[in-house]
Design brief:
By secondary structure, the protein is α/β, with parallel strands linked by helices. It is built from seven helices and eleven strands. A hairpin with a 2-residue loop joins strand 10 and strand 11.
C-alpha cells in the first residue's frame, strides 16, 4: 500500500502518473519498479494511467543496453498505460558524441559514464566512434533519437533537470531542461507548473511547493524512486 500525502499540484479526475527517476544502467531496478507499478495498477485500477521515465537511462551502471532494451520493448500488458520517455543529459551526451564525432564531445561522454555503456554493448572505450553505430542496436538508437524533452499534465511539468526561473514554458531551452541546476534548485518563486525532475541526486525525495526531485541515486547505492501522482495527492514507490 502506497502512503499518499497532499501534493503541491493536481491531476484531473481519472488520471494517475508514475514518474520514475534516473535509472543509469540499473536494469534490475527498472524491472523491479515496473513490477511494483503493475502490482499497484492491479490493486488500484484507474482509467488513465501514465508512466513517465525522466531520462538518464544510460551510463555509470553496468547494464545500459538492458535498460534501453526494456524501454524499447514497451509496456506489454492489457490494458497498457501511456508511456512517456524523456531525454536526459546523458542521452544528449551520447548523441553528441555519435553525431559530432569531435574529440571533446567523445571524451565528455566517456568521462561521464559512457565507457560503461559501451561495455554493455560489447564495445571497448578505445574503439572508434565510427564503429559504435555498427554495434548499437538500431532500435535502441532510434529510441534515443525520438525522446521527448518535456511533458505537461494537469498542474505538473515533467523534465529531466528543471526549468529556467522567470521564463514561460515556450521560452525554455532544451539545454536548461536537460542540464540546469541553479538557479532552479534554490528558486522559491512561481514556475509555469510544479516541476517533476531527476538529474540532481539526493538521499531522499525532495517535495517542495514548486518542484519534486525523484533522483535518489539508484546507481550510487540508493533507491530507484517513482513518484505516484493522482488527484491532489502524492506517494512514492522504491525499488
Amino acid at each position: 500500500m502506497i502512503t499518499m500525502t497532499l501534493a503541491p499540484a493536481t491531476l484531473p479526475a481519472g488520471q494517475r502518473v508514475y514518474a520514475i527517476g534516473d535509472v543509469h544502467g540499473c536494469a534490475d531496478r527498472l524491472e523491479a519498479m515496473h513490477a511494483l507499478i503493475r502490482e499497484d495498477l492491479a490493486a488500484r485500477p484507474i482509467a488513465e494511467p501514465t508512466i513517465v521515465h525522466l531520462g538518464d537511462y544510460i551510463d555509470r551502471g553496468d547494464n545500459s543496453a538492458g535498460v534501453l532494451a526494456r524501454l524499447v520493448r514497451g509496456w506489454r500488458s492489457d490494458p497498457s498505460p501511456r508511456v512517456i520517455n524523456l531525454k536526459g543529459n546523458h542521452e544528449a551526451m551520447l548523441l553528441a558524441a555519435l553525431d559530432e564525432v569531435k574529440p571533446e564531445s567523445v571524451m565528455h561522454w566517456l568521462s561521464n559514464g559512457g565507457s560503461e555503456t559501451l561495455g554493455s554493448w560489447g564495445l571497448s572505450p578505445r574503439s572508434r566512434p565510427l564503429q559504435w553505430r555498427q554495434h548499437i542496436p538500431p532500435e535502441q538508437l532510434a529510441f534515443l533519437r525520438g525522446l521527448a524533452v518535456s511533458h505537461r499534465q494537469g498542474g505538473y511539468i515533467f523534465v529531466h533537470a528543471g526549468l529556467r526561473p522567470g521564463l514561460p514554458m515556450e521560452r525554455q531551452t532544451h539545454d536548461d531542461m536537460l542540464w540546469i541546476r541553479e538557479p532552479f534548485l534554490s528558486f522559491k518563486g512561481e514556475l509555469p507548473g510544479v516541476v517533476i525532475h531527476g538529474h540532481t541526486p539526493e538521499r531522499t525525495v525532495l517535495v517542495r511547493p514548486t518542484r519534486i526531485g525523484v533522483d535518489t541515486g539508484a546507481v550510487m547505492g540508493g533507491a530507484l524512486t517513482c513518484a505516484v501522482l493522482e488527484a491532489d495527492v502524492i506517494g512514492f514507490l522504491r525499488a
